[in-house]
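From the methods appendix. Each design record in this collection lists the discretized structure first, followed by the designed amino acid sequence. Records were kept in a plain field format so they could be parsed without special tools. The example shown here is representative of the layout used throughout.

RECORD:
C-ALPHA CELLS (417 positions):
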C-alpha cells in the first residue's frame, strides 16, 4: 500500500516542480506578463524602502520651503557676497548704432575714346591719381596722318577761296565800268560763298583730327584710387570695350550708407534742417578700432516699409586710405547729448520679463529692486531714468543673479566715491 501511495505522489511532485520552474522563468524573463496588482504592490514597497533609506551618496532633500530666514542671501543664512558701484551724473552722448556700407563718392571707368594699339601704361595699380593725369598712350601714327590730311585739304581749299575772292573783286570793278555782265559777277560771288563753306568744313575736320589725336593720350577723368589694369601693353583697345583700361574710385572723402530706425527720423530731420552737424564714426567689426569720422550729408526720400528704417548717407575722412568701397563697418551716429543725466554701470542693469531694474544696496545691507528706463549707452555706463534712484546710490554689479528684493548682501568689492 505504501508503494502505491509513493507511486501516486511522485508524478504530482514532479509536476509541481515543473510548474514552479515555469512560473519563475515567466516572472523574471517576461515582466510584462506579471499581474498588475502584484507589480504595483511590489513597486510601492520598493518606493517606500527607497524613500526611507535613500540611495548611497544622496544628499538630504528639503521637504519644502527655503531653510533659514527668507531675507537671507542663501540657504545657510549668510549674506550673499556682491560687488557694487556708485550711481553718477554725467553728460551722455545719445548714439544710434548701425551697419554701414562704404561707397565711393564717384566711380569712373577709364576707356580709350579711340581704337588703337596700347603703346604705354603710365600708372601703377592701386595708385592715387589726380584728374587730368596721364594714364596711357595709344599708337598715334594713324591719327597724325589723318590730321595732316585734313590740314592739306584745308590749305588747298583756302587757296581756291582766295583766288575766287580776287576774281570777284576784279569782276565788281569791271561791273562798275559796265564792262562785264552782272550775271557773271553774281556767279562768282556764289562760288566764293561755296568755297567759304568748304573751308569751314575743312577747319572742322582739322579740329576733329586734332581731338582724335589728343585721345591717344588717356588721362584720368577724376581724382581717386586706381584699380587693377584691364588691358596689356601691345593689345588692341577699342572705345567699346566694357571693362576699359582701368577704373578709378574717388575715396577721399569716402561715403557710407546706413539705416536708422524710423523712431529717430524726426530728431534727425529737425537737426539737419536747422543746419546742425550730425557726427558719424566708423569702427571695425569688433568695435575696437575707429576707422574714420565724418558727418551726415543727406537722407533717402522714403522709409523702407519692410524694415522700418531710413537710409542716411554720410561722408568720412579717408586721408590714410583705410576705407574701401563695399567695405562693411560699424557706424555710430551721434544724435544728441544728455546733459548731467543719471547713469549706472551697464553691468548693474538686470533685464527680466517684468522690465529693466537695478538692485540698490540699502543701509541695512539689503537690496531693493528699482525699475529703470534705459536711455543712452556710452562705454561702460548706461543712462537711465528712474524714480527712487539718486546720485551716490550703491548698485549691485556682480552677484545679482542670486538675489531678490529684500535679500541680505555683503559688499566685498565697492567702487571708490
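DESIGN:
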Amino acid at each position: 500500500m505504501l508503494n502505491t501511495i509513493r507511486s501516486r505522489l511522485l508524478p504530482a511532485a514532479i509536476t509541481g516542480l515543473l510548474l514552479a520552474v515555469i512560473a519563475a522563468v515567466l516572472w523574471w524573463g517576461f515582466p510584462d506578463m506579471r499581474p498588475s496588482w502584484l507589480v504595483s504592490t511590489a513597486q510601492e514597497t520598493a518606493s517606500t524602502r527607497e524613500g526611507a533609506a535613500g540611495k548611497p551618496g544622496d544628499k538630504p532633500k528639503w521637504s519644502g520651503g527655503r531653510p533659514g530666514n527668507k531675507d537671507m542671501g542663501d540657504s545657510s543664512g549668510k549674506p550673499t557676497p556682491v560687488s557694487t558701484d556708485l550711481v553718477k551724473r554725467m553728460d551722455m552722448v545719445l548714439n544710434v548704432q548701425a551697419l554701414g556700407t562704404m561707397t565711393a563718392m564717384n566711380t569712373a571707368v577709364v576707356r580709350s575714346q579711340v581704337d588703337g594699339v596700347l603703346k604705354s601704361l603710365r600708372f601703377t595699380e592701386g595708385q592715387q591719381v589726380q584728374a587730368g593725369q596721364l594714364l596711357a598712350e595709344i599708337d598715334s601714327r594713324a591719327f597724325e596722318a589723318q590730321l595732316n590730311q585734313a590740314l592739306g585739304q584745308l590749305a588747298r581749299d583756302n587757296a581756291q577761296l582766295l583766288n575766287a575772292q580776287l576774281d570777284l573783286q576784279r569782276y565788281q570793278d569791271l561791273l562798275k565800268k559796265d564792262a562785264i555782265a552782272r550775271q557773271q559777277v553774281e556767279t562768282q560771288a556764289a562760288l566764293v560763298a561755296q568755297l567759304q563753306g568748304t573751308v569751314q568744313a575743312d577747319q572742322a575736320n582739322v579740329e576733329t583730327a586734332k581731338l582724335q589725336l589728343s585721345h591717344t593720350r588717356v588721362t584720368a577723368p577724376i581724382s581717386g584710387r586706381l584699380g587693377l589694369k584691364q588691358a596689356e601693353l601691345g593689345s588692341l583697345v577699342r572705345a567699346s570695350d566694357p571693362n576699359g583700361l582701368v577704373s578709378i574710385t574717388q575715396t577721399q572723402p569716402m561715403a557710407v550708407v546706413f539705416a536708422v530706425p524710423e523712431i529717430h527720423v524726426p530728431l534727425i530731420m529737425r537737426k539737419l534742417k536747422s543746419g546742425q552737424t550730425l557726427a558719424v564714426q566708423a569702427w571695425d567689426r569688433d568695435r575696437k578700432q575707429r576707422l574714420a569720422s565724418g558727418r551726415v550729408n543727406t537722407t533717402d526720400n522714403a522709409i523702407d516699409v519692410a524694415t522700418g528704417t531710413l537710409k542716411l548717407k554720410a561722408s568720412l575722412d579717408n586721408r590714410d586710405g583705410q576705407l574701401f568701397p563695399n567695405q562693411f563697418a560699424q557706424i555710430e551716429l551721434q544724435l544728441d547729448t544728455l546733459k548731467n543725466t543719471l547713469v549706472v554701470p551697464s553691468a548693474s542693469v538686470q533685464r527680466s520679463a517684468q522690465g529693466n531694474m537695478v538692485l540698490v544696496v540699502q543701509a541695512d545691507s539689503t537690496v531693493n529692486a528699482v525699475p529703470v528706463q534705459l536711455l543712452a549707452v556710452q562705454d561702460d555706463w548706461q543712462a537711465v531714468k528712474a524714480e527712487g534712484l539718486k546720485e551716490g546710490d550703491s548698485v549691485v554689479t556682480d552677484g545679482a543673479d542670486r538675489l531678490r528684493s529684500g535679500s541680505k548682501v555683503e559688499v566685498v568689492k565697492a567702487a571708490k566715491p
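APPENDIX NOTE: DSSP finds five helices and 20 strands in the chain.
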